[in-house]
Amino acid sequence: MTGSMLNVMLKYVCISATVGVALYATLIWLLTTASFQAHVVYLHKIQMTWFRDLDVPEMFGFLYNQVTPFSIKVSDGEALYAWHVLPLELYREHEASLLDEPSGFVSDITSSLAFKLLRDDPEARLVLHFHGAAGTVGSGYRTPNYRALSAGQPRKIHVLTFDYRGFGRSKGEPSESSMILDALAVVNWATNVASIPPSRILIFGQSLGTAVSIAISEHFALQSPPLLFAGTVLVAPFVDVMSLMATYRVAGTIPLVSPLVRFPRLFNYLGTFVRDKWSSKDRIARYIRANEASGNKYRLTLIHAEDDWDISWHHTPKLFWHAVNATVPAGIAYDELEAKKDERKKYLGAAGSFVEWRTENGVIREEILKYGLHDVIMGYPIITLAAMRIFTAADSSFR
């Protein structure tokens, strides 16, 4: 290779490196703007249900009128697009009557037979489902998730799922405060419109939805008097947005902001521009402390798969520690808790492991699967068992 050819190659390498650094610097700068942050964190413009009509749930594998699309009003005037999913055995029992009703979006959910089957059954349970970033109520592995949630008692467990504002057919723009407002509206609908007591309601969140779930659980636990649900299940949770940024890799391989972690001052400076913190670690601690102080019974389950490419499973042990630490007046060091977990943990081979921390008032359960990825896990039997475990703990007669 001649000296001139080497010089040309070096020139192109330098140009490519300069362009790469410039593009990365532009990305970091864009991340300091609120609008770009919202698109990166929430991915709400990515529908993932193109060419399918959400008002026709049969296109997503449901039976005729098994799902009722409707809207829920929010206190600030926005409207959320929602699905009420009937459990399969209950559907079978009332199939003839359900087939006589028109399907599709209803302007008045209270007039539908499906709603009456929920409201008028004193044994009915309701899962309030908070989905993750991107997509809609019908996207990806969310529909198998609804089936898994009700599979343990297919006559009694209904699912209410919805799109946050800015997602799918729900208008508006998402933010931490507005999405919590959306969650409040959903709880209000469940308790005041459908008349389901909180003790028969399970809060379920996956990915981004875990942050919304623990925020709403904390909100009602801090009320006077507190409002307590049957329990809360968090699948693939994260500690907070900054911790997620520090570990997130696109497709599990391409780091986005994590290279800046090597420069703490720069990374922390970037953090000052983050609008929506979603600090689940702080909220989970306040939720536990509130219940421990009031003596209220609570049940919290955290589930994660080790092969999760989107959110590292290491977030879950950290959240588990923040929750457990809130039960110990003098606190407990992370390493000390890990040692105690090793003594109590049940290893299940290729199925993973689980451990429970019990107090006089509550149970905090950590389940780590070997396999399940970020979304596939939502249709697994572990989801069915998690829902049933909480419902039966809240009411031993529920079978």
From TrEMBL:
Keywords: Membrane, Transmembrane, Transmembrane helix
PANTHER family recorded: ALPHA/BETA HYDROLASE DOMAIN-CONTAINING PROTEIN, PROTEIN ABHD13
A Pfam family matched in the record: Abhydrolase_6
Keyword Membrane: yes
Source organism of this protein record: Lachnellula arida
Name this protein carries in UniProt: Monoacylglycerol lipase ABHD12
InterPro entries attached to this UniProt entry: AB_hydrolase_1, AB_hydrolase_fold
Ranges for domain AB hydrolase-1: 127-292
Transmembrane segment boundaries: 12-31
